TrEMBL record:
UniProt domain Response regulatory: residue ranges: 11-128
GO process terms (BP): phosphorelay signal transduction system
CDD domains: REC_YesN-like
Protein name in UniProt: Response regulator
GO cellular component terms given for this protein: cytoplasm
Presence of the UniProt keyword DNA-binding in the record: yes
Residue list for modification 4-aspartylphosphate: 63
Major place of residence: cytoplasm
Keywords on record: Cytoplasm, DNA-binding, Phosphoprotein, Transcription, Transcription regulation, Two-component regulatory system
InterPro entries in the cross-refs: CheY-like_superfamily (IPR011006), Homeodomain-like_sf (IPR009057), HptR (IPR051552), HTH_AraC (IPR018060), HTH_AraC-typ_CS (IPR018062), Sig_transdc_resp-reg_receiver (IPR001789), Tscrpt_reg_AraC-type_HTH (IPR020449)
Organism (species): Paenibacillus oralis
Keyword Phosphoprotein: yes
Highest taxon in the source lineage: Bacteria
GO molecular function: DNA-binding transcription factor activity; sequence-specific DNA binding
């Protein structure tokens, strides 16, 4: 529904401390066909920052691990000094910590080496499209062009208000259709244009009847920015009373609701960018408050009463992995409903839900890969547009769609049965670890041959059965030594070692000290932590 812009090439910089990788990324893909111009290659973060400033770079493709300034530090500097630059990060390390940091730094996408060319091409296409939308300035009247620039680019826009824009007092309104995804997202273009016309006509009719002048631009299909002008000074209460009655329901739809966020009243047009941001920011709080109009300052009042509880990401992922592998669609749906019940009751803003879900999905992807699931490209590409998904129900639909697609892909690609055998074995081992348990006994309980069990156990855990058992028992023993006064031989028996000397030998091989030495170290640490004890 957005209008197209000029075919200006998007400037991209490739950053990697290995020149052969830079060249490969430069020449493997026909960037020109994507509307991208590769303006250079940089081999470290400092050089990248210099080229970004010199070449007016729009898009940066960077490795995460480099000598000197690495990709994460580079992304942090860009976010501070060049926030308009879009970043795609490439890593040879499948580490949730890296992915999580990248997400928090606003990186657009996080790809693993070796890079899949088709996946990289799709990612860049979407980013280029997003950049073009942001760069696009409608070719309408001079005032609308200026207002659109102020709304989209903020104080960086830098252009003075057109001389024809006259007034004594001004106010910015941001209006939006409620429940957009559920009601309007799939509407045909022509029909949606009639909705926008009714929206504009109804809003302007009420405002201009009250002797205010209104200029409006669509900053998004579902975000209308309106500049209100008054040629005389009007008391704040008159402004507020006007807004309370001027936001009509959407005429063609009986239940079509319009939300409004209103900036403070101001007199200097140079403040317009800040007032646009202020009005748009109010839209986030409509999920918490049922009022149709929220005035600047209401957000501070609403935020003051909120203290978000921690959401158990790891526990939710564990339950999701189980439900997905079991192909239990009802359980997956129930888990999503529970998540969003928590978000609603805890009064999460939609942006806060998106951030939590991104972290959850990154961990979910990692857990699935560790379980042997490979080649699954799934999930929301980039952040969901909160002007479209502007309700709890809209975001819930995204999450459920992601997980249903993932469930389908798991079913299509098949499930490694050995994963479930080992998961079952691990539970049995935990239950029986205090006994003198042998690999052959576990294999017998699973009704498989000992050789097959040993093979899949080592393949799944990376450890032999004896090593796995010893590590688990020693960890249990360390906990008992630090937290109880049980004698060492009693602890040895509790964790599954019937021979005391063998226990001491194994303990020392894993920790570098005897059990008594370990207990003494734990006691001295506790004393140092609390000298009054």
């Amino acid at each position: 529904m957005a209008s197209g812009g000029a075919d200006k090439r998007i400037k991209m910089l490739i950053v990697d401390d290995e020149s052969v990788i830079c060249e490969g990324l430069h020449y493997t893909i026909d960037w020109e066909e994507l509307g991208v111009e590769v303006v250079g290659e940089a081999y470290d973060g400092q050089e990248a920052l210099r080229l970004v400033a010199e070449q007016n770079v729009d898009l940066l493709l960077t490795d995460i691990r480099m000598d000197g300034m690495d990709g994460l530090e580079l992304a942090a500097r860009l976010r501070q000094d060049h926030p308009e630059v879009q970043v795609v990060m490439i890593s040879g390390y499948e580490d949730f910590g890296y992915a999580r940091q990248a997400i928090r730094l606003g990186v657009n996408d996080y790809l693993l080496k070796p890079v899949d060319i088709e996946e990289l091409t799709d990612v860049v296409k979407k980013i280029v499209q997003g950049i073009r939308v942001r760069q696009n300035e409608s070719s309408g009247q001079e005032i609308k062009l200026w207002l659109l620039g102020m709304a989209r680019h903020g104080t960086a826009y830098g252009k003075e208000a057109p001389p024809s824009l006259q007034g004594v007092q001004f106010r910015i309104l941001a209006t939006q259709l409620a429940d957009f995804h559920e009601r309007f997202a799939n509407m045909e273009q022509e029909r949606y244009e009639t909705v926008q016309e009714a929206w504009l006509r109804g809003l302007h009719g009420h405002l201009e009847d009250a002797s205010f002048r209104a200029v409006s631009v669509f900053d998004h299909d579902n975000l209308l920015i309106t500049l209100l002008l008054s040629e005389t000074r009007v008391k704040p209460k008159i402004w507020d009373d006007l807004l309370a009655s001027a936001i009509p329901p959407l005429a063609p739809f009986e239940d079509g609701r319009i939300y409004c966020g209103a900036s403070r009243i101001y007199e200097n047009l140079a403040d317009t960018a800040d007032r646009c941001a202020e009005a748009a920011r109010m839209m986030a709080y409509h999920v918490l408050e049922g009022r149709q109009v929220l005035l600047a300052g209401d957000d501070e009042e609403l935020a003051a009463g909120r203290k978000l509880p921690d959401f158990n990401i790891a526990g939710t992922v564990q339950r999701l992995v189980s439900a997905l592998f079991k192909q239990d669609q009802r359980e997956v749906k129930t888990l999503v409903e529970e998540m969003f019940r928590f978000f609603r009751e805890s009064r999460f803003l939609l942006a806060e839900i998106v951030k939590t879900y991104e972290e959850l999905f990154a961990l979910l992807r990692q857990r699935l890969r560790k379980s042997g699931m490979t080649g699954l490209d799934f999930g929301q590409q980039g952040q969901p547009d909160l002007n479209i998904y502007n309700s709890y129900a809209g975001l819930e639909a995204i999450v459920l769609k992601d997980l249903e697609e993932l469930q389908r892909l798991i079913d299509k690609n098949g499930i490694d049965k050995s994963y479930w055998i080992i998961e079952k074995a691990k539970k049995f081992i935990i239950e029986q670890h205090r006994t003198d348990l042998k690999a052959s006994e576990v294999a017998s309980w699973l009704k498989i041959t000992p050789s097959y069990f040993s093979y899949i156990f080592k393949q799944s855990t990376g450890k032999g059965f004896t090593e796995y058992m010893n590590e688990m028992r020693i960890e249990h023993a360390k906990d008992l030594l630090a937290t109880t006064h049980d004698k060492v031989f009693e602890i040895a028996d509790k964790v599954g070692y019937k021979e005391y000397k063998y226990f001491v030998s194994v303990f020392k091989s894993y920790t570098g000290m005897t059990p008594k030495e370990y207990r003494g170290l734990s006691v001295s640490k506790d004393a140092a932590a609390d000298p009054n004890e």
